[in-house]
Each structure stands twice: as structure tokens, then as C-alpha cells.
Write a structure and sequence with these properties.
The complex is a heterotrimer of chains A (787), B (278) and C (188). Chain A is an alpha/beta fold. Helices cover 23% and strands 14% of the residues of chain A. A 6-stranded mixed β-sheet of chain A has the order 21-23-22-27-20-26. In chain A, a hairpin with a 2-residue loop joins strand 24 (733-735) and strand 25. Chain B has a single domain, classed as Alpha-Beta Plaits, CATH 3.30.70. The chains are: A alpha/beta (787), B alpha+beta (278), C alpha+beta (188). Chain A: Belongs to the prokaryotic molybdopterin-containing oxidoreductase family.
């Protein structure tokens, strides 16, 4: 989230698309209800009328997988009718920059495409610079090669009639959506976009988000109280776990994992490669070296490249993401697997096949509160023959969040502490202790080893007190960082250095523990400091800022766009940015100073990216899902040309002939993710006790299905049983003249726990987004029949 | 003497999360009791002895043909003239100073009159076993968390309600709130109304409904059955005087069936009552 | 812990509850249920954050030391102000559910059942497995460049763990053990 939950109350209009917060983030509606009381509007765009739609002022359906067409049409309409926020666009976005004439686009393909590798030469999409290395601008926005004109041209193909033929949205509802949301483009107004996995879980997921970004920049909504792009995170600490580098491609604080390219053979070469020439990331060497110091302590010195060589290097261009883990496992390349509270046999794409891959492991360690479908993949109940599975499986009982202490970071980046309320149940233990026990044993086993595999283990700095229970306070201090000589805490990341004199486990969190005895995640002062930002409650990264990009909440000369919605503003008398938030800007850089308009200073241009380089192009372009009942109306390119394929056995693809119905998956208020945390609890199990599939009255009639019937849903991956829930909340779509049906299913169910049922992910495809490789759970093909 | 309070339910703000259902079970230590698949997201057909409030899910097409997805927190209404209180032969049901209607489980003999006579069908019998394995029954329903009220705390369901669809406060304030809300939503919901039926003397759970009561499965004009009034005010006192309380309790089933003509069908519906949920 | 008595008094959520004591004449407390029967009397609540979605609602946990007897929204947390959804309201059963696994378990190759084992045995055996796999499959160089990595062990999950835990997890798995297959729920 650029903003935070409480801030939703300040919005003039919330466009909720690709998310269903009333069901999956219910407390958001406490704040949206307040916004409504003040005259704010809510728009719900969803294939199905949801509990969120029930609270909306306006509902518009769209076919799953047509988001770029939908938002592209909004962008086009806003440009054509000059509904954008002109002053914001000119000053804070890259609209005026001139793009090199190597950029081109034709019939769904940008210039520089290599079909063999399914990738682009992205260097063709650069900005023009002058002889002084300054970006060339056309402030009139008229140059045919400026971003604004190229964008206008690109989206001109997304006219309303074409769009609604693709999305299936009734035209009048579509126009109403655009007009209602475009109102927020007026200076002083603020609109927010709230999205979740309905946006990201597509082969074009990242570009779906990009399209939101373009829309919000055009309307001048980023950086404002009540505005922003708000990704609603589905797990209590999925924000934190991402911040701390639990994805293969990032170490902590969103910095690169090294690869074995020749330039990265040395730390110096690595830093040169990953550090941009302009923007805030020029400080990266300070953050990276401080991280290495936190990792390797005294074993990290200037003479050994601060331990850089201990770090594992990825094979260049090799993908290590979730689906590729299972590809490798299936091929027998992975021997051991740790699963910390995760359940891919229910939650993974093509889950039946992922379950099969698990049986090729030599050993598995499941750390969980519950026996999950994944930790029990070898059981008869799972359809397996235990005698044929040689995997050694360890189950380590973890305790719950209130049986231990520690902090979590919510969607709004607020790092809040959880205290221990009771001792761990039975013999269960906190994950901190389990990880610590593993580390101590590895260090012990490698203590006297000279094997190359011993080096990093021995160098790893692991001093968290005595015994098997680590001192969490020591971990907190290290995350924040301290002076390696004096051990005094570092006040903030601006004080980190690249000479090894400071350490910091995660630079974006630096500042949460700025001095002795002050762990700000424990702060509980709930007096509002202004505009609902509660600056003394917990800590928000970075630097306790509550709204990212808040320089843009003020006009170019530093006055608030609206007096009712003051983020920060320039106080000339004090020569400071002041207001209701911690400035996301150099605090004494005046509007007239060099860089005084660089609201997006993390980027080399300092400007919001209407034009932004992604794997499949600098502008979002509509492509159909991997499985779609229709051909692409915008070009002859059916599938995202940069989406990658994995192991063939996982890649089954159904055709519309065999599977004519679009299917999507989602969650319900009463269950959570792969279900272990809710299907094992009696009170939630009774609320949604059965797997169901939502079917429109029209499709039910066609198929002879009655409400409460048992039905079978089939896809190219398999089939599952569910109860039919016949509903008025799903309606058939009219796409390019033909009727297309869609059904939807919750994906929480499995065979373990109190509430059991078929796993929807036995049906979902094993293909993902071209940038993130997030699986395309949200649009695939199926058929439905009575059981 | 405490003042009279009302639980105010504005269904138009409810987003159907069902925290109220769990909050009730959590505070009152009630067990889960899954029912068969209902064909919608609704978990239970109606409130039961172990599930004191149920969220109703309703898909309704309004007169303009627009789809409305309606939710209603359904639980005891805590009537001012409570049929259950009138028909209880054991005086196990009483009014509290807060306006809530509560069942004294020590007095309840499980006869079920209250269940049969409730105009809203929100009381049920729970079956328990004593330590000798003998089964016995007790009437159960929402208590309005009277134990919490006595400690200065609001009902558990109200406290947890995040959109503020439920509020608890003194009677006049809540009625004013309801009137104000009604005027705000009239444009969007022309059929909106306040549900605080006079036939039972008004209730201590009142609703702002977006559509007619019948759309929510509520009787349009519920009232205390005349028979219940006769029983409470005439038959029971005389009977007790003449026959003694124990004998009266034995007569329970007989009297109940004859006098009230109950088979669980007539829930005190007025003759001209219009639509009902049955 | 910065947790005051004032907050305890406000436990019923909505500041209105505290006000109620003063404003609504609840002072007489001629309770039918005596204070000792009141289920949370004399219990000190512990503040926590909901383990479910990413909103980060505050919850108060009432424990008697042996069991969790009640949970309710934390009225002082400005995000939820004492309210919760159905999941957050059920947090109590995360502790009380009889489905919790309370001891380490082991499943031998080819076996059809779990065996109860003790922590030391399990941790030692896991550690030996890890070392054995690492030592056999460790990649020191790739294209002549030092890569120090292990591509035969994967670590998945962690979105439900605390920040301090995921920090140590990524530190151990990546910087210590050299794993490249490190993934979690943010991807799926």
C-alpha cells in the first residue's frame, strides 16, 4: 500500500477492482463506511457481485482476465476528454520526457522482441538525453515521441465499444465507472484504487497493476491522503516476509540477489551493476554493505569484500520462483524442502501435480500448527500409496502468534508488536526458536569442517544469547542496525555507511529501534497526530512515513492541493516540509531547489512512470489468459509474449471446445488462504462448512443443475466435486457477440481439518505473470456437470 | 435503576462478515454445530439453541430490476411485550432493567411453550445430559449479553461490528439514530423502513431495513398471540391457584396444543399480517 | 509493555463502553452474575495483532495461564478500534482447537503413519540430513565465478511468521546455508 487502512476514510472515491475487501480485508470497510458518510463513493468492479459490491455505489462486472482492456479504456477516455490532472501530470510524471525513437509498437508486439527467448531488448525503451546527460523534455506534451503522446496513441485503440466487447461490461455501467472515478482527477480530489490477487494472479498481472499506476498518476492521486494504489495483503506478515527477502530474487530491503554474471564476480562489480546513477538507490552500497555486516559480523571486512563471496549467486536468467521449485522437484533435482506454515497441495497452482512432485523429495520438514494436506501428502487420504513414497517427513509443531512475541508488518507497512499471552501449547515452539535451533546445529556440525560448504556457515554471525531460546531483542537491534564498534543503535538509514562501520539487517526498517530501549514497533500512543496517520503508534517503514510519495500531496510550489487533505506542505519560514506525515522527501529541499519537484525520487528520473519498463513492454497491452474462450480483439497476439513456460508435464492447457466456461478462484471472509488456520477451528468451519461453486441461474438452467446439487468441475488439470450455489450474483457475459459463462470457487478447501472439500487448485494452470511469475489462478477454463 | 437500552441494527451498513456470529459464541462459550449446505453463504437456516444469532443472506431483485445482496443479523428481538415471557409456566423468563428478556436456566423446565409462541422464531431448546446420562432440555436464546451489560460492557456482537452496522445505546438515542439513517437511505432504498413492531410493544433489537420486512423473512406485523395473553393473564394464575405449579407444568403440552393451536406454524402472525417467512 | 489499566477498562471496545460506566448509570452493578463468575474478571489481557489478513487489527487475549478463555478486538488499536471480522473473532480457537499438533512427528520412508518423536531427535536428524545434502550437492563455482550455493534444498513459506523470524530465516537459509530456492506466499 502506498497509503494505509485508516486513510481510506479520506477518499472521494474508491475503485475496488481485483479485490474483495469486504470479504478478505473486512476492517477496511470500517474506514470506507466513514468515507461514504462524508460523501465518498465506492465502485466495485468484479466478475461476480460480492459482499464488497453490496456496499458499493456502483457495480460493474468484467470477465476475468480483461482488466487491461477495462483500465486501458478508462485511460483512453480520460485522455480523450482531458479529465486528467494536468499540473500533476506535467510536473510529477514522465509525461514530458522524450522516448528514444527505437521504441515501436505494432499489432500487440513492442520493438525488440525475440520469439525464441520470449523476451525483449529493453534497452530500446530508453529516454532521450541531451549532451549534458539531462533528460530531454517537451513541457507542451506535444512532441509525437514524448511519453504523453505515445501513451495517448497506444491507448487510443481502447475505445469504449471495443473494450466492452472484450470485458463484457454493460456499456452504461462502464461509462459511469469512468466518469465517477475520473472526478478524482480534479485538483483537490483524491481517489484510491484497492486491489489484491484478482489483479496480480494473471499472466498479465504486473501490467494490470501498471495500468492502475498510470490511471492514478493521470488523475493526480498518488501521494495524497485518501489516494494511492493500495495492494491489500492477504497474510498478517506477507508484507514483512517480502521486505525481509523471502523471495529468491531479493535480499532484504528489495535489493538484488547476486548472480554469476562476470560483472558480479566481485563485490565492486556487483555494486556497480545494481546501483543506478541517479535517484535514492544511489545509496545502495551503504545498505548492502550494512546488510553483509549484519550477516557475517567480524567475518565481513573490507579485505574480503565484506563477505560478499559467502553469498549464494543465482544462475543468470534462471527462474527460481514457486512454480520452478516444483518443476525442479518433479525432475528430482531437489532433495530437501522446508515448509514454514505453507500448504502448496491446497494453495499451489496445478496442485495435484505439485503434490506428485513432493513425493520425489528425499526429506521434508513441515513447520506448522496443523497437520496440513502438504505435510501429509504421503497418506492414503491424499490418494497416495505410502509404501511407494520414500520421503522422510518431519513435522515440527509451531506455536501460534500469541504464544510467542515479535512484530508483524501490515499492508500499510505498520510494524506492530505482538506480546506473548500464554506459553506455547503442548511441546510446540516459536519459529524463532526453531530457526535458531537449526542454525546452532549447523554451526556445530560444520565447526571443524573444511568442506567448501562450511565456509559461509562458519562465517555467519549468529549471536542471540545463550541456550536454545534466542533473545529477540538482540535480533531487533540487528535488524535496525548499530555502529559495529560502539554498538550504539543507528537512528535511521541515512546514517548507514558502506565502509563496514555500520550494520543493518534490513535498511528499510532502520529507524524502528533508533536508540537504547526504544523499539518503536511497541509504541501504543493512539492519539491521532493528524489526518489519521497516528505517527506515534507503532512504526511504519520507511522512516515512519505513512503515505508514500507524499511530496505529491502538495502543488509544485508546495501548497496542499486541498486544505481538507493536507499531507505535507512547504513552510518557507522554517525552510522545511511540514504537515501531518513524515515527509517522503528531503525535509529541507525547497520546491524551487534542484530536484524540488522530484516527488518520485527513488526513480532515476524522479518522476512517476507513465512509461515504465517491464518484461512485456513499457505500456500495458491486453492479452488473453493462457486459457480463454475468445481470441484477442486488440491484436493477433493471444498470450502475453513474455510469459515463460515451465516443465511440460505441468503445462497442460485446455481448449474452449472441451472447457467452454471461464473459472476463477477467490476467498471468503470466514476462511483464510489454504485453510489450515480456519478449517481447523470449529466456529469458522461451521460458517462455511462446504466446498461450493457459484453458478449463474442461466448456466445452471443450461446444465440442468439445481441449487445444492453436487457437481463436478473439470479442467485440463483434473476434476473436483463441490456443491452448486446457484446465484443471481453471477451473470453470463456477452463477449464479441457470444455468450460466455463464468463460475467461481473458493480455494480454501482440502481433505484435512474439520471443514473439508475439493481443492480448487487441482484445476488451476501452471503458468504465471511475465515479471513475477505469480500463477494465473484467476482466469482459466473448465466445465461443470451434475455429479 | 438502569435505563432502557436498544440494540440498533442498520442492515445497510452490514457487509456480511459474520463476526457477530462468532463473537456471540466466543463470549457465551457456545459450540459449533454445522448444518447441511444451505445453497447460499448462509450457515444455519435459523437461530438455534447453540447459535443465538445467524446472518441471513438474501439475493433480492428490486422493483428496478437491480440486484441487491442483503444481509440481516437475526437474533432475539427482546420484545417489550414478550410472548415467551407470557407463556412461560415456570416464570423462568423475565425482563431486565436494561430491556433485555432473559431465561433463568435454573427455573426452565424445557417445556417449549416459549419456542412455540415466539413471533420471530428465535428461541430453541437445547438438549443436555446430566451426570447420570439423563437428558433434559433448556430454552436458549440471545441474552443481549446481559451479563456484560451488568459490567458496563456492550453486547459482544455490537462491539465487534466493524462497519458500525450495530450500535447499542439508550432507547431514545437509538430511535433517533434509526430515524436519521432512514432519511439518509430513502433515496437509494425507497422501501426502507424501521422495524420496531408495535404488536409486541416495540422491541429492544430494532432494525433499519432496506426493503420490506418480508424480504428479510420477517413478519410484517407481528404481535403477541391473543392466546398467550389469555394464558398469561388469566389461565395461568387461576390454574396455579387451583392446581399448583407442578400440575400446571404437566398440563403444559396439552394446554399448549389446544389453547394455542401450535404446531410450530403460527408465530403470532396477525390475521392481516401480510407476507411472512412461511 | 506499554499497556495501562485504562486500556483494560475500555476492553469492551468502542470507547462508549467506558463512558457507559459513567454516563449510563451502570454503577449500581447489582449483578446477578457475581464478579467471580464473570468470565474475564481479574484476567489481564495481552495485546496482539491478528494472525490472518494484512490489515493488522489489534486483539486482546485473555488467558488464565492454562487456557485462552476469551479474545476480543483491542479498542486502543486505531486500525480496528475494538472491532474484528469473523476470523479475528475466532483467534481464541487457534489455541483451543484440538486439531493442534503438540509434539514433533516423524514419518519414516515408506511408512503409513506418523510417530511421535522428541525435539532433540528430530532437530539432530534434520540437521544431519541438511548437512549431508549440502555437502554432496554444494556448488562452489559456476562459469569460473564463486557462487557458494545449494540448489538441492528449497525453503518455502513464512508469510505468517514474525519479522524477527523471517529475518533470521532469510539470513540462515540464504547467507548461511546458501539456498537459492527461497520462496514464500507473496508469489502465490
Amino acid at each position: 500500500m502506498t497509503n494505509h487502512w485508516i486513510d481510506l476514510q479520506h477518499t472521494d472515491c474508491a475503485l475496488i477492482m481485483g479485490g474483495n475487501p469486504a470479504e478478505n480485508h473486512p476492517i477496511s470497510f470500517r474506514w470506507l463506511t466513514k468515507a461514504k458518510e462524508k460523501g465518498g463513493k465506492i465502485i466495485s468492479v468484479d466478475p461476480r457481485f460480492t459482499r464488497t459490491s453490496s456496499q458499493a455505489d456502483l457495480y460493474a462486472p468484467l470477465r476475468s482476465g480483461s482488466d487491461i482492456a477495462f483500465v486501458g479504456g478508462m485511460i483512453n477516455y480520460i485522455l480523450e476528454n482531458k479529465l486528467y490532472h494536468e499540473e500533476y501530470v506535467k510536473n510529477y510524471t514522465n509525461a514530458a520526457l522524450i522516448v528514444n525513437d527505437t521504441y515501436s509498437f505494432d499489432d500487440g508486439i513492442f520493438g525488440g522482441y525475440d520469439e525464441k527467448t520470449r523476451s525483449y531488448d529493453k534497452t530500446l525503451w530508453g529516454f532521450k538525453k541531451d549532451e549534458n546527460d539531462k533528460y530531454v523534455r517537451d513541457n507542451t506534451l506535444q512532441d509525437p515521441n514524448c511519453v504523453f503522446q505515445l501513451m495517448k496513441k497506444h491507448f487510443s485503440r481502447y475505445d469504449i465499444d471495443t473494450v466492452v466487447e472484450v470485458t463484457g461490461t454493460p456499456k452504461d455501467a462502464y461509462v459511469k465507472v469512468i466518469e465517477m472515478f475520473a472526478e478524482t482527477g480534479k485538483p483537490g480530489k483524491a481517489g484510491t484504487i484497492m486491489y489484491a490477487m484478482g489483479t496480480t494472479q494473471h499472466t498479465v498481472g504486473s501490467q494490470n497493476v501498471r495500468a492502475f499506476g498510470i490511471l492514478q498518476l493521470l488523475l493526480g492521486n498518488i501521494g495524497l491522503q485518501g489516494g494511492g494504489i493500495n495492494a491489500m495483503r492477504g497474510e498478517s506478515n506477507v508484507q514483512g516476509s517480502t521486505d525481509f527477502g523471502l523471495l529468491y530474487n531479493n535480499v532484504t530491503g528489495y535489493m538484488e540477489t547476486p548472480t554469476s554474471t562476470p560483472e558480479e564476480a566481485t563485490y565492486k562489480g556487483f555494486l556497480e551493476k545494481v546501483t543506478p546513477k541517479a535517484g535514492y538507490w544511489t545509496n545502495k552500497p551503504k545498505f548492502y554493505t550494512s546488510m553483509l555486516k549484519a550477516y557475517y559480523g567480524n567475518s565481513a571486512t573490507a579485505t574480503n569484500e565484506f563477505g560478499y563471496q559467502y553469498m549464494p549467486k543465482l544462475t543468470p536468467k534462471k527462474d527460481y520462483s514457486h512454480m520452478r521449485v516444483f518443476d525442479s522437484m518433479y525432475k528430482g533435482e531437489i532433495e530437501g524442502l522446508f515448509m514454514f506454515g505453507t500448504n502448496p497441495v491446497v494453495g499451489g497452482p496445478n496442485a495435484g501435480k505439485e503434490k506428485e512432485a513432493l513425493s520425489k523429495l528425499k526429506w521434508m520438514v513441515a513447520i506448522d500448527l496443523w497437520e496440513t494436506e502438504s505435510s501429509a501428502f504421503w497418506q492414503k487420504e491424499a490418494g497416495a500409496n505410502p509404501a511407494e513414497i520414500d520421503t522422510e517427513v518431519f513435522f515440527l509443531p509451531a506455536c501460534s502468534s500469541f504464544e510467542k512475541e515479535g512484530s508483524v508488518s501490515n499492508s500499510g507497512r505498520w510494524m506492530q508488536y505482538r506480546w506473548q499471552a500464554i506459553a506455547p501449547k503442548g511441546k510446540s515452539k516459536g519459529d524463532l526458536e526453531i530457526i535458531h535451533m537449526l542454525a546452532l546445529r549447523q554451526k556445530e556440525l560444520y565447526k571443524n569442517s573444511s568442506h567448501p560448504a562450511a565456509a559461509a556457515v562458519k562465517a555467519l554471525d549468529w549471536n542471540y544469547g545463550h541456550g536454545e531460546h534466542p533473545d529477540i531483542d538482540l535480533v531487533c537491534r540487528e535488524i535496525n542496525g548499530y555502529d559495529t564498534k560502539t554498538k550504539t543503535q543507528i537512528a535511521g538509514f541515512k546514517d548507514l555507511l558502506d565502509d563496514g562501520s555500520t550494520c543493518s539487517g534490513n535498511w528499510i526498517y532502520c529507524g524502528f529501534y533508533p536508540e537504547e530501549g526504544k523499539n518503536h514497533s511497541k509504541r501504543r500512543d493512539n492519539k491521532d497526530t493528524g489526518m489519521g496517520n497516528y505517527l506515534n503508534w507503532s512504526f511504519a517503514w520507511p522512516a515512519n512515513r505513512r503515505i508514500l510519495g507524499n511530496r505529491a500531496s502538495a502543488t509544485p510550489d508546495g501548497k496542499p492541493w486541498s486544505k481538507d487533505r493536507v499531507g505535507i506542505q512547504w513552510d518557507a519560514a522554517q525552510n522545511l516540509w511540514v504537515g501531518n506525515d513524515v515527509p517522503d522527501f528531503t525535509k529541507d529541499r525547497a520546491p524551487k531547489d534542484e530536484g524540488g519537484l522530484s516527488a518520485f525520487f527513488m526513480l532515476p528520473t524522479g518522476l512517476g512512470g507513465l512509461f515504465g519498463v517491464m518484461n512485456e513492454g513499457p505500456f500495458p497491452e491486453h492479452y488473453e489468459p493462457y486459457e480463454s474462450p475468445v481470441t484477442n480483439a486488440f491484436s493477433s497476439v493471444q498470450l502475453n509474449p513474455a510469459t515463460k513456460f515451465g516443465v511440460e508435464e505441468f503445462m497442460t492447457q485446455g481448449s474452449a471446445k472441451d472447457y467452454p466456461i471461464i473459472a476463477t478462484t477467490y476467498r471468503v471472509s470466514e476462511h483464510w488462504q489454504a485453510g489450515a488456520m480456519t478449517r481447523n477451528l470449529p466456529w469458522l468451519s461451521e460458517l462455511v462448512a462446504y466446498m461450493f461453486v457459484e453458478i449463474s441461474e442461466e448456466l445452471a438452467k443450461e446444465k440442468g443443475i439445481k441449487n445444492k446439487d453436487k457437481v463436478v468441475i473439470t479442467s485440463a488439470r483434473g476434476n473436483i466435486e463441490a456443491y452448486a450455489m446457484i446465484t443471481k450474483r453471477f451473470k453470463p457475459f456477452k463477449i464479441q457477440g457470444k455468450v460466455v459463462h463464468q463460475v467461481g470457487m473458493p480455494w480454501h478447501f482440502g481433505y484435512k481439518g474439520i471443514a473439508t472439500g475439493g481443492s480448487a487448485n487441482h484445476l488451476t494452470p501452471h503458468i504465471g505473470d511475465a515479471n513475477t511469475n505469480i500463477p494465473e489462478y484467476k482466469a482459466f477454463l473448465c466445465d461443470v456437470r451434475r455429479a | 435503576m438502569a435505563k432502557e437500552y436498544i440494540k440498533y441494527v442498520d442492515v445497510t451498513k452490514c457487509d456480511g462478515c459474520r463476526a457477530c456470529m462468532v463473537a456471540c459464541k466466543n463470549w457465551n462459550d457456545l459450540p459449533a454445530e454445522p448444518e447441511e449446505f444451505q445453497g447460499s453463504l448462509q450457515s444455519h437456516a435459523k437461530v438455534t439453541a447453540n447459535t443465538w444469532n445467524v446472518l441471513n443472506f438474501i439475493e433480492h431483485e428490486n422493483s428496478k430490476g437491480d440486484l441487491e445482496y442483503l444481509f440481516r443479523h437475526s437474533s432475539c428481538f427482546h420484545c417489550t411485550d414478550a410472548a415467551c415471557e407470557k407463556v412461560c409456566p415456570e416464570d423462568a423468563i423475565s425482563y431486565t432493567d436494561f430491556g433485555s428478556v432473559v431465561i433463568n436456566n435454573d427455573k426452565c423446565v424445557g417445556c417449549g411453550y416459549c419456542v412455540q409462541n415466539c413471533p420471530f422464531d428465535v428461541i430453541s431448546l437445547a438438549t443436555y445430559k446430566d451426570k447420570n446420562g439423563k437428558e433434559y432440555r433448556k430454552a436458549q436464546k440471545c441474552t443481549m449479553c446481559t451479563d456484560r451489560l451488568e459490567e458496563g460492557m456492550q453486547p459482544a456482537c455490537v462491539v465487534t461490528c466493524h462497519p458500525g452496522a450495530m450500535q447499542f445505546g439508550n432507547k431514545e438515542d437509538m430511535l433517533t439514530l434509526a430515524e436519521k439513517r432512514l432519511s439518509e437511505i430513502k433515496e437509494k432504498f425507497p422501501n426502507a423502513n424501521i422495524y420496531n413492531p408495535a404488536g409486541v410493544g416495540g422491541t429492544h433489537t430494532i432494525y433499519v431495513l432496506a426493503e420490506k420486512p418480508s424480504v428479510y423473512g420477517l413478519p410484517e406485523k407481528p404481535k403477541v398471540p391473543t392466546s398467550a395473553v389469555i394464558w398469561k393473564d388469566y389461565a395461568q394464575p387461576i390454574g396455579k391457584l387451583m392446581l399448583g405449579a407442578t400440575t400446571m407444568a404437566v398440563m403444559a403440552g396439552f394446554v399448549s396444543n389446544k389453547l394455542f393451536n401450535k404446531g410450530g406454524h403460527d408465530h403470532g402472525q396477525d390475521e392481516e399480517g401480510g407476507d411472512s417467512d412461511e | 509493555m506499554d499497556f495501562t489499566r485504562r486500556q483494560f477498562l475500555k476492553l469492551s471496545g468502542a470507547t462508549a463502553a467506558t463512558l457507559a460506566v459513567i454516563e449510563l448509570g451502570f454503577d449500581d452493578k447489582k449483578a446477578k452474575a457475581s464478579a467471580k463468575d464473570f468470565k474475564i474478571s481479574q484476567l489481564k489481557p495481552t495485546p496482539t495483532i491478528c494472525p490472518y489478513c494484512g490489515v493488522g487489527c489489534g486483539i486482546l487475549v485473555y488467558s488464565d495461564g492454562k487456557d485462552v478463555v476469551y479474545t476480543e478486538g483491542d479498542p486502543d488499536n486505531p486500525i480496528n478500534e475494538g472491532t474484528l471480522c469473523s476470523k479475528g473473532t475466532t483467534v481464541r480457537q487457534v489455541y483451543t482447537s484440538d486439531k493442534r499438533v503438540e509434539t514433533p512427528l516423524y514419518r519414516a520412508p515408506g511408512s503409513a503413519k506418523w510417530e511421535v518423536v522428541d525435539w532433540d531427535w528430530a532437530m539432530n536428524r534434520i540437521s544431519e540430513k541438511m548437512k549431508d545434502t549440502r555437502d554432496r550437492t554444494f556448488i562452489q563455482k559456476e562459469n569460473g565465478i564463486t557462487v557458494n550455493k545449494v540448489e538441492s534444498i528449497a525453503c518455502m513459506g513464512g508469510a505468517a511468521l514474525d519479522n524477527e523470524e523471517v529475518y533470521l530465516l532469510s539470513k540462515l537459509m540464504r547467507a548461511g546455508l546458501g539456498l537459492t530456492y527461497i520462496e514464500h506466499q507473496a508469489r502465490i
